[in-house]
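Q: I'm writing up a methods section and want to include an example of the input and output format. Could you take the sequence below and give the corresponding predicted structure tokens, formatted cleanly so I can copy it straight into the document?
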Amino acid sequence: MQNFFHILLLSFLGVVVSSRDGPTPLVLWHGMGDSCCNPISMGNIKSYLEEEIAGVYVHSIMIGSNIVVDMESGFFRDTNRQVSEVCEMMANDPELQDGYNAI
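A: Here is the clean output for your methods example:
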């Protein structure tokens, strides 16, 4: 299963490379019960992408001030509020101003 997962992620390489000076930035947004930085899930995916795609900027979305709040937000925070916060967060990230791919 892990090999399938790695192949799936690497399949994004064709989409990630663009005509800009470097690879197109990536945005990761986890699902319920996870957090942006969990080293056995999204944190591992972020590290893997950064290792496999030289120079890529990866923004792993965190809702709240720490990973516990981030995980709890998936269950208890209003979804519309989360979307609004993330849109603002991404709009204010200069690395994402020229486009990005989202996973």
